[in-house]
Amino acid sequence: MDVQVGDRLLMKKPHPCGSSTFSVLRIGADFRIRCEGCGREVMNPRVKVEKNIKKILREGE
């Protein structure tokens, strides 16, 4: 998957705060993403994040 730092991700499941969008802060074997609703930062394995992405939202598109 072509995910870059700065992208916003629309996920299949919402965060417990109710927001479904996350911004990408770091990419590697793990992704560090920040919830856009409450600001909590989460670090998850790449496989788990890529499986749960519904759509990638970019600024230029």
Please, how many domains? 1
The best one-word shape is globular
What is the class in the CATH system?
Answer: Mainly Beta
Structural class: mainly beta
Tell me, rounded to a whole number, the average pLDDT: 93
Under CATH, the topology can be stated as SH3 type barrels
Compressed to H and E, one letter per element, the order equals EEEEHE
Describe this structure in words.
The protein is globular, with a radius of gyration of 10 Å. A hairpin with a 5-residue loop joins strand 3 and strand 4 (41-45). 10% of the residues are buried. A five-stranded antiparallel sheet has the order 4-3-2-1-5. It has one helix and five strands; from the N terminus they run E-E-E-E-H-E. The longest helix has 7 residues, at 46-52. With 61 residues, the protein is mostly beta strands. The model has no long low-confidence stretch (mean pLDDT 93). It has one domain (8-57): SH3 type barrels (Roll), CATH 2.30.30.
Topology diagram in text:
Layout: E1 8-11, E2 21-26, E3 30-35, E4 41-45, H1 46-52, E5 53-57
Antiparallel strand pairs: 1-2, 1-5, 2-3, 3-4
List keywords for this structure.
single chain, 61 residues, mainly beta, SH3 type barrels, 5-stranded antiparallel β-sheet, 1 helix, 5 strands
Task: Sum this structure up briefly.
The protein has 61 residues and is mainly beta.
